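Lab notebook, page 48
Experiment: co-folding of the full assembly
Goal: obtain a model of how the components sit together before planning crosslinking
Operator: M.T.
Materials (sequences as entered):
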Amino acid sequence: MTVRFRVGDTVKVSDLGKAGHIRTPFYVRGKVGEVIQFCGFFLNPENLAVGNTAGPVIPLYRVSFRQKDLWPHYEGSPGDKVLIEIYDHWLTAAPGITSGKCEAERSS
Amino acid sequence: MSHADVHHHDRAHTHHADETLVTEDEAGNLEAQIIIDALQNLLVTKNLLAPEEVTQEIERLEAPGVHLGALIVARAWADPAYKARLLANGKSAALELGIKVGEAQLIVVENSTTVHNLVCCTLCSCYPRSILGQPPSWYISKAYRARAVREPRVVLAEFGLLLPEDVELRVHDSNADMRYLILPERPTGSESMDMSQLAELVTRDCMIGVAKVAPVRAPRK
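Observation: model returned without errors.
Model output:
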C-alpha cells in the first residue's frame, strides 16, 4: 500500500460511519488538518479487534489540527493544537484549505 | 436466562457518564475479581496455567515505573547529543540506557519557553507503560480524556499550571500505535547536578505534561 500523503499535506478526516474498534474519535471527523509525520505501516486495529491479524498493514499518520477548527468556542491561544494519529483510509486530500501549521513538529 | 439477568447484563454494558470504574457487592467483593478468580481456577485445574505464571506476569506488568522515564529525561538534560537522538527516535534512545520500550514507537516531544506539550488518550488509556508504569486513575477518567482535548488550559490550571497566552499548547491524543513522552524543561538551579540528582527531579506529571519541573532552590546554609 502506498503512502498517499506527505508531511505538510492538508487532509480532511472522513466520517466512515463504522462501528467497532475504530481509532478515529468523533471530534476530528470532518475536520481539516495538516500531516506532520508518517509513522509507518501498522495492522488495522478495526481488523485486529475481531481477531484478524493477517493484515494487510496500512499507513498511519500524525495529523495536526488547530484547536479553533475543532472547537468553535475554544478558549486559549490561537496557536494551540491537537495532534493525533489517523490511519490512511480515514483521510482524504484537502488541497487549498488552510490548516494549522506546526513547523517544529514536522519531521522528514 | 431470566429477565433479571438480561437487565443486569444491559446495565453492566451500557456506558453512562456516571458509571463507576469498579463494581463491588455489599460484602466488598469486586465483580471483575470474582470473574478473574473463577477463570484462573479453571485454567489451573485444567493444567493450562500455573499460579506462579500469574504472579510472574503481574510482576512483569508492575516492574516498569516512573524511574525509567526520569532516567531518560535526566540523560537528555545532561547530554545534548543523546537528547538529539532521543527526539529523533525515542525507542532506540531508550534502549541505549537498557530500557526496552514495548510499544511500537516512542515519540518524545520537548517543552520550551514557547511550546508546552500535554498527553492524553481520548479513546481509552494508551500510555507509555514500559517507561512510566501504569497510568494514574485521573488519566483514564472520562473527565480527563474528554477535557484534555477540549479545554486543556482549564485542565492544566486545575493541576496548578497556568500557561501564558503566548505559549503554544500541543495536546497529543495517544489514540493509536504511537506512545508519547514529554521532555520537560530543565529547571533553574539544577546546573551543577549529576545525572542521578537530575533524575530525582523528574516527576510522572511532568512527563505527562500536567506539570513543570519545579526550580531547584539552593540548600540553606
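Interpretation: Residues 31-45 of chain B form the longest helix (15 residues).
Next step: discuss with group before ordering constructs.
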